[in-house]
Design a protein that fits this description.
Blueprint (H helix, E strand, L loop, with lengths): L1 H48 L7 E7 L9 E5 L4 E6 L5 E8 L3 E6 L5 E11 L2 E5 L5 E6 L10 H9 L3 E4 L4 E5 L4 E6 L2 E6 L8 E7 L4 H10 L6 E6 L7 E6 L10 E10 L2 E10 L4 H16 L2 E2 L2
Antiparallel strand pairs: 1-2, 1-8, 2-3, 3-4, 4-5, 5-6, 6-7, 7-8, 9-10, 10-18, 11-12, 12-13, 13-17, 14-15, 15-16, 16-17
Keywords: Signal
Protein name: DUF5067 domain-containing protein
Organism: Pseudobutyrivibrio xylanivorans DSM 14809
């Protein structure tokens, strides 16, 4: 009897041990499965949240129903969660920040008291993003190829497509139009030059300068005095205005000079100082060469607008 009990105890102990082992194995398999499922869910969530509808670049924005969209309205994405909405017709620019969700993009539009606009994404294919804001109008965001995001100018991009003059807008609140086929613009601080690149007898350029060292009359006098005591001075109305005094200086022309150099300047009181435009022109004596230079420079001056 004792021997039987001993055997039964051993069997019972063995059974208990096997049960515990199986239980442990079962728990391990369950834990592994749960871990795999959790990892899979996490991967899916990461993939969803990592969707990037807009990369750094410029996107033309237009109605999906338009057959031949003008493509004059742009969203510029700087690549750091911010960007701007640029109108190539009016020249306006509105800054925004944005957040990308799984199937939408929230735009915080405006620098002061921004408004939130949610763009619901319907389709994302071939880098084009299709969807709508709250008004329900289906829109397309299409990448613009071959442009530099950092220097993109919506107005000049549109004008180039339509063959119109470019617009130079200065940080000091004035702008002019120019023909990019014959004018190169160089900007550096308070000085901007418009250099004629067509056929001419020598250097032909306009140098626009904002200075706080003088007011308009003093600035023009300083330029003219460098040309000698015979410099001619006069006053009129400054281009692009109706009642602002224009101070003008013209370098005296020597009859025995063969250089063809002619210099003149005009200026006005502006902000805390003066704004001047100095002309450096080499004439050849051939109207076929000289007149196009004069016309290009006149077009610039005649187009001056003050936008501040």
């Amino acid at each position: 009897m004792t021997k039987i009990n001993s055997v039964m105890k051993k069997v019972f102990s063995l059974g208990l041990a096997l049960t515990m082992v199986m239980s442990m194995v079962g728990c391990g398999q369950s834990a592994d499965v749960d871990t795999m499922k959790t990892a899979q869910i996490d991967d899916e969530e990461v993939a969803m949240s990592a969707v990037t509808y807009f990369t750094k670049g410029v996107y033309a924005n237009y109605a999906a129903e338009a057959e031949n969209p003008d493509k004059t309205y742009f969203y510029v994405f700087y690549g750091d969660g911010s960007g701007s909405i640029d109108d190539g017709v009016t020249g306006t620019k509105t800054y925004f920040e944005y957040e990308v969700g799984y199937d939408d993009v929230t735009f915080h539009i405006g620098s002061v008291d921004p408004t939130d606009e949610v763009f619901s994404v319907k389709e994302f294919k071939d880098s084009k993003v299709v969807g709508s804001f709250s008004d329900g109008l289906e829109l397309v965001f299409e990448p613009v190829e071959g442009v530099d995001t950092d220097s993109f100018d919506a107005v000049n991009y549109v004008n180039e497509k339509t063959g119109e003059d470019f617009v130079y807008t200065d940080a000091n609140g004035w702008q002019v139009k120019y023909n990019p086929d014959v004018i190169q613009v160089n900007q550096g601080g308070p000085v901007t030059t418009f250099v004629y690149t067509g056929d001419c007898a020598g250097t032909c350029m306009i140098t626009a300068t904002y200075t706080v060292d003088n007011k308009g009359e003093g600035a023009i006098k300083a330029i003219g005095d460098a040309w000698g005591s015979d410099t001619n001075y006069s006053e009129s109305i400054f281009p692009g205005t109706e009642d602002v005094t224009c101070y003008y200086a013209a370098m005296p022309v020597s009859d025995d000079s063969n250089s063809g150099l002619h210099c003149s300047a005009l200026g006005r009181d502006y902000m805390d100082g003066a704004l001047t435009f100095e002309f450096t022109v080499h004439n050849s004596g051939d109207d076929a060469i000289d007149i196009p230079v004069s016309d290009a420079f006149s077009a610039i001056i005649d187009s001056i607008e003050f936008v501040q």
